[in-house]
Write a structure and sequence with these properties.
The protein is mostly beta strands and 176 residues long. It folds into two domains: 63 residues, no CATH class; 110 residues, no CATH class. It has two helices and twelve strands, in the order αββββββββββαββ. The protein has a seven-stranded mixed beta sheet with strand order 3-5-7-11-12-9-10. The protein has a three-stranded parallel beta sheet with strand order 4-6-8, with no helix packed on it. Strand 1 and strand 2 form a beta hairpin. The longest helix has 16 residues. The radius of gyration is 24 Å and the shape is elongated. 13% of the residues are buried.
Length: 176
């Protein structure tokens, strides 16, 4: 059952029906469309469910979905775009980061990583084109950090943005 439209059994295939029943069915469809947000003047906006979960509304932005990875002390931790575009992790030991599940090649997608104590232990990164201040790129994280004159904090928080416009085949990154 839908609050926007619930199909009745009318019209049944091969059975004659009354025009009043057909009008009632079309009225139910119209009522469902009337519940949707108005489109005029809202170009480039998205339709989403409101915070109460009771209605649809239009918005210029989508809310980020957060994935909490907790404290990672070893092994490999995957940051899947499909899990959300805001990931938090605390570095508790040397570990490797991977990324996956980027959207299709026609979309620009980005994820923000909030890394606590990132410099306390070694983080091994996947192949990322780190964008240096002069616009050139490097795939070596240490070279990037030297180019921006900083390091990951051993006790504190850093934010890194990763983005791709080709389903994760080429990933770019920048500390913000």
């Amino acid at each position: 059952m839908s609050e926007y439209y619930t199909h009745t059994t009318y019209p049944a295939p091969g059975v004659a029906g009354a025009s009043s029943a057909m009008r009632a069915e079309l009225d139910a469809i119209t009522t469902g469309f009337d519940l949707l947000p108005a489109i005029a003047g809202k170009e480039h906006q998205v339709v989403k469910v409101n915070s109460a979960g009771s209605a649809l509304e239009s918005s210029k932005t989508l809310q980020s979905i957060q994935k909490v990875h907790g404290t990672i002390s070893s092994g490999t931790e995957n940051f899947a775009y499909s899990d959300g575009n805001y990931h938090t992790v605390t570095n508790g030991g040397a570990f490797t980061i991977t990324t996956s599940a980027w959207p299709t090649t026609t979309l620009l997608a980005w994820m923000t990583l909030k890394i606590t104590n990132g410099g306390a232990f070694t983080i091994t990164w996947p192949t990322i084109n780190w964008v240096k201040p002069d616009g050139s790129t490097t795939t070596t994280f240490a070279t990037y950090m030297t180019a921006i004159f900083t390091t990951l904090q051993t006790s504190g928080v850093n934010f890194i943005v990763l983005w791709s416009d080709n389903a994760g085949t080429t990933i770019y990154g920048k500390m913000v």
